[in-house]
Amino acid sequence: MKKIVITKAGEPKVLQVQECADLVPSENEVRIAVKAAGLNFADIMARQGLYPDAPKLPCTVGYEVSGIIDEIGSNIDEQWLGKEVFALTRFGGQAEQVVVPLHQIFEKPESLSFEAAAAIPVNYLTAYQLLVAMGSLHSYETILIHNAGGGVGLAALEIANKIGATTFGTASVGKHEFLKAKGLNHAIDYRTQDWQKELLALTEGRGVDLITDPLGGKNLKNSYRALSNTGRLGVFGISSVAESGFKGKLKLLKMVAQTPFYHPFGLMDQNKGVFGVNMGHLWHEHKKINVWMQALLKGHAEGWINPHVDTTFTFSEAAQAHQYIEQRRNIGKVILTP
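Above: the chain's sequence. Below: its structure in token form.
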């Protein structure tokens, strides 16, 4: 089989498509013939050498796939053979084959293409955890979605719209028309505007009840200041440091130095909350993840969950796919296909 390998930390050119032996599932696993694999910012940072959870290089990353089960372990019911599924993968997803335990697999609805199905696991589960499981967003509240045009951002927008909350989002101006068509109430151009000042003006100085922040560093200070009383800040990334080589490591150190510390006494005094989300650290919570996914699949059946795939790249175009995301060109999900 073929797989995308990060041969060493560096620019996108370090990515290679390599041949290796076919995988064999253990007794409690299934093998998926991959039709589509998601590409996430964590994969970009793994290539840059900035992602602490990544396997030792050289490695194949990838947290989510869709495809067809073509081989099963001895303890797996034969009814799973030939099923179209999508799955969470603990790396190894950006390959023609991946083996995973059954509890990380979900049956693919016929209404979803393989590409759209691969766009669900990481983005939508992250958004659900941010808004529903931990953010507790309500219809009478307001939310600011940073990077609203990204995969998690669009997923969060769909969930917020279903809840009925008033939505604000930061994105480059070229994405505003698309986001407004998707139901975003107020778009803020973070490149030409002071987003915090603009948000406070739009909310008459009150701020918002929930902010989702994938940027990290000093941006967290501004996000925290933009919270209303009882406001919550959901932190789920440090994409502001993304850069290859020595510059990336310097930016990471600078980001760590700029990250604020939230003391419990201050949080109590201001009636605010800060929480973190990392789907890659929830592998032991598969029962909870399954409940969240069933809610999302119900949302798709009802018509309000519709993953948006921006662009599809072949495995041999993986370097271009990484550059596309690094340049913030995507609206929604970028998908890799064998």
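The mean pLDDT is 94.
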